[in-house]
Amino acid sequence: LAQALADEPARRARLTARIDALRARIEALRPRLREAAAAQQQRLQEAVVAALRARQHRLVDYETQARLAIAQILDQRNFERPPVNGGVPR
């Protein structure tokens, strides 16, 4: 026990030095971390914009298809033959 108590100040000094070294390393890595986060955010933003543009193009295609379908329905209705029996329902 006496030996452990005698070694405590040296142990504490080693731990303090290690903590200080790790703290300095963390501080040195912070700028790289910020750069990496900014680059990741930019890539994510570009991916989201690309996905939204693709969805917008699909919606335009769907709208075009719907307009064409409506036009075909209206054409069929406007150009269908008059009833053969003079318009009297059977």
Basic shape: rod-shaped
Count the beta strands: 0
Tally of DSSP helical segments: 1
Round the Cα radius of gyration to an integer and report it: 38 Å
Q: Could you state the order of secondary-structure elements as H and E?
A: H
Distance between the termini: 112 Å
Mean pLDDT metric: 91
- Main sheet properties: none
As a percent range, the share of strand residues is under 5%
Helical proportion, percent range: over 70%
Low-confidence stretches: none
Structural class: mainly alpha
Notes on the structure:
It is a single chain. This protein has 90 residues and is an all-alpha fold. Helix content is 87%, strand content 0%. The chain contains one helix and no strands. The longest helix has 78 residues, at 2-79. The chain is rod-shaped and about 120 Å long. The termini are far apart. The model has no long low-confidence stretch (mean pLDDT 91).
Offer a quick outline of the entry.
This protein has one helix at residues 2-79. By secondary structure, the chain is mainly α. The model has no long low-confidence stretch (mean pLDDT 91).
